[in-house]
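Re: weekly structure request thread

Next one in the queue (150 aa):
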Amino acid sequence: MPVFIGLGLPIFIMARVRFFGRFVRLLARLYARIVLWVFGRRVRDSAQALAEEWNRLMPTPRSRFPILESDDRTAYVEIRVHCPLRGTGNAEACWNAMEFDRALLRSIGGQLVVMESQANSGKDYCRLAIRRGGDDLSDLEAAHPEWVSP
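Done, posted below.
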């Protein structure tokens, strides 16, 4: 976990400054590629399998990234790690920082929607919905409308 936080901290710091948005997303994609290079990539074809693979790619203890429930289309997961953006209300910074998770999911055949964010929900966790790449996301209530992306 310390290495994960150490790598992620620059992302969260720079994400707060709108000027660095593109660079933060680029850096997040680079970190995702490093994680995939180290741990390998397993393309999955169901929401549950995508969530399990996302969980495998997260740092230990993986209990901080639980899979809450899943159905045929969607798996719901949480991130229970203290986010440096908690309580800031900075939705744009969260969007930029979450490029890491979006890049991981894209590489394994999935996509995600942030449904609740520590940045603006007042909660101590983030809640995500995971679906197969290309599946419709319009029925998912995103924490911020701009957070729904392909």
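The helical segments are 2-15, 21-39, 47-57, 91-97, 99-107, 118-121. Residues 48 and 70 are 6 Å apart (CA to CA).
Next request, please.
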